[in-house]
Specification:
Oligomer: heterodimer
Strand content of chain B: 25-35%
Number of strands of chain B: 10
Shape of chain B: globular
Number of helices of chain A: 9
Shape of chain A: elongated
Number of helices of chain B: 8
Number of domains of chain A: 2
Strand content of chain A: 5-15%
Order of helices and strands of chain B: EEEHEEHEHHHEHEHEEH
Order of helices and strands of chain A: HHEHEHEHEHHHH
Largest interface: A-B, 22 and 28 residues
CATH topology of the largest domain in chain B: Rossmann fold
Mean pLDDT of chain B: 89
Largest sheet of chain A: 4 strands, antiparallel
Radius of gyration of chain B: 17 Å
CATH architecture of the largest domain in chain B: 3-Layer(aba) Sandwich
Number of strands of chain A: 4
Helix content of chain A: over 70%
Helix content of chain B: 25-40%
Low-confidence stretches of chain A: none
Distance between the termini of chain B: 35 Å
Strand order of the largest sheet of chain B: 6-7-8-3-9-10
Radius of gyration of chain A: 31 Å
CATH superfamily of the largest domain in chain B: P-loop containing nucleotide triphosphate hydrolases
Mean pLDDT of chain A: 82
Distance between the termini of chain A: 29 Å
Structural class of chain B: alpha/beta
Largest sheet of chain B: 6 strands, mixed
Low-confidence stretches of chain B: none
Number of domains of chain B: 2
Strand order of the largest sheet of chain A: 2-3-1-4
């Protein structure tokens, strides 16, 4: 089977049915563009949520304990897997912080010796509120620890919001993909329907269904490639020029994982796969159904 | 199926749209035969041809074509069967966006032939149907007779053993019809079997060959004499 024939027929197929090809490319382009925008916005939302989570730390207030007990508590904290950093705040440092935060009002409290020494504990950004709760309870049981505090409400709120964003984002993403696939399938089906005569003639002279299908699949892949490239280009223009000029306070939203090629390759790949699947699905169904005596 | 037979029907029955169009039919065609199949509209002539190119399966009986047992052959063998048949329909079924050369070459390309062979073979069959000089013309620029000749050239390209022609002169004027019949007879003289479905009794009379009539599900042999009456 001639590969050159299949590829040249695939390209010729786009040229011969320009309107149908344009409709397929456009529907794929819109779907991939929406996915690209969704991915880039979601990634940045995720980054913001993660940095907010990173700012949440646990404060472990200590009783008046000797240095040995204090070191033991620190050792205990260091042992915890989700703890990333432990910073000691002495009574003096606590007083200094208090003064710097409350300014002259803080100065009226002449003796700030009542402020306890503490450990400020940074936890992993991946830790959930439940895990931190468990950790807080465990630390609270340690001898020499007076109290353990962390901003549970903020973390819970961030988690809830983030979970909602993930659920809605995934739902919207899946819906876009499904709608696009149905759209692409139907558009390609119409394209193939317009070539019913070609299919009949091919069957008439003894072409196998596989042979008939291949140029249509190549056509679908080329359409996917064009739609994907267009969508990547538009995502670039949108986030690098249009959005910063319309909303300068937002600035340029980062590419997912910091590099342009991850999202761009994913968009291109999804577009090509959808073009391939849509054309394969439509062609397979239609070619099998077409009889050489259909009028 | 005997060694000389290219088509054989044994006790074949077909019901189409709740009507029995073929009723326990026996039929055979040998290498080099030219046979007309006549009958009224709806008599089952198209079903008869569809059985041969395996677009339809019999309800009962057995069909053999070019060595294939139609009833039991796998669907992936159907294209191979069709490569051994040259099929010509009344409506020309040419691809309007390709020229004469491309329309004929197309049938060889889809069967995976090499470019050098395609070129040689297309020139050969276009010469045979008398259209070498029109190889660059588009179907729209051809007369009905010329279009049908291109279809015949396309059907011949793969060197089939049997030609099935379903009303090939149906859209042609009498002069073009006679010219086409002469072409089919020439092809038949080269040893190819031809089964031609037609309504044109005048043509059957003037180009006499074995004639079968489908009537009430039965296949009967008709003499030239009975056609004139």
């Amino acid at each position: 089977m001639s590969i050159r024939y299949i590829i040249s027929e695939g390209i010729a197929g786009i040229k011969r049915a320009r309107l149908a090809a344009f409709t397929s490319i456009f529907s794929l382009f819109i779907a991939i563009l929406l996915l690209g925008i969704l991915a880039r916005v979601s990634y940045n939302a995720y980054q913001i949520a993660q940095s907010m989570r990173g700012s949440i730390d646990i404060e472990v207030f200590l009783m008046d304990v000797d240095e040995r007990t204090r070191d033991k508590i620190r050792h205990n904290l260091d042992e915890q897997s989700m703890v990333t950093d432990v910073h000691y705040i002495s009574k003096d440092s606590a007083a200094r912080i208090f003064r710097s935060q409350f300014g002259s009002e803080g100065g009226t409290l002449t003796d700030l010796d009542f402020l306890p020494a503490s450990y400020r504990v940074d936890v992993s950004e991946e830790a959930t509120a439940e895990e931190i709760d468990a950790l807080v309870n465990e630390i609270g049981q340690v001898r020499g620890v007076e109290d353990v505090k962390f901003n549970r409400r903020l973390l819970r709120m961030l988690e809830d919001r983030f979970n909602n964003v993930v659920k809605i984002g995934s739902g919207v993403g899946a819906l876009i993909l499904f709608a696009a696939l149905v759209l692409v399938f139907n558009t390609i089906r119409l394209t193939i329907y317009a070539k019913q005569n070609l299919i009949k003639s091919m069957k008439l002279v003894g072409a196998t269904n596989k042979f008939i299908r291949r140029p249509f699949i190549i056509e679908g892949i080329i359409q996917g490639l064009i739609a994907g490239l267009l969508a990547v280009g538009v995502v670039y223009l949108l986030f690098h020029y249009l959005l910063p000029s319309l909303l300068p306070q937002v600035g340029i939203l980062e590419w997912p994982l910091g590099k342009w090629y991850y999202l761009s390759s994913a968009m291109l790949l999804i577009s090509i796969i959808m073009g391939y699947l849509g054309s394969r699905w439509a062609a397979q169904k239609f070619i099998r159904k077409t009889s050489i005596t259909d009028s | 199926m005997s060694a000389d037979d290219v088509i054989e029907f044994k006790n074949v029955s077909v019901t189409y749209q709740h009507r029995q169009v073929l009723d326990s039919i026996d039929f055979s065609m040998e290498n080099g035969d030219f046979t007309y199949l006549i009958g009224q509209t709806g008599a089952g002539k198209s079903s008869f041809l569809r059985l041969i190119y395996r677009d339809l399966l019999p309800d009962e009986g057995d069909v053999w074509v070019a060595g294939y047992h139609i009833n039991t052959m796998k669907s992936n063998q159907v294209p191979h069967l069709r490569r051994r048949l040259g099929i010509v329909f009344q409506d020309f079924e040419l691809l309007p966006d390709r020229n004469v050369y491309e329309n004929v070459a197309f049938s060889l390309k889809v069967t995976g032939q090499k470019n050098r062979y395609i070129k040689k073979r297309v020139i050969e069959v276009l010469g045979l149907v008398g259209l070498s000089h029109k190889h660059k013309s588009m179907p729209l620029d051809l007369s009905g007779g010329e279009k049908q000749r291109v279809v015949i050239a396309r059907a011949l390209a793969n060197e089939p053993r049997i030609m099935l022609a379903d009303e090939p002169t149906g859209n042609l004027d009498p002069e073009a019809s006679h010219s086409l019949m002469k072409l089919l007879e020439q092809i038949n003289d080269r040893g190819m079997s031809i089964l031609m479905v037609t309504h044109d009794y005048e043509l059957v009379r003037s180009h006499a060959h074995k004639t079968l009539k489908l009537e009430d599900g039965q296949l009967n042999s008709i003499s030239k004499k009975s056609l004139s009456s």
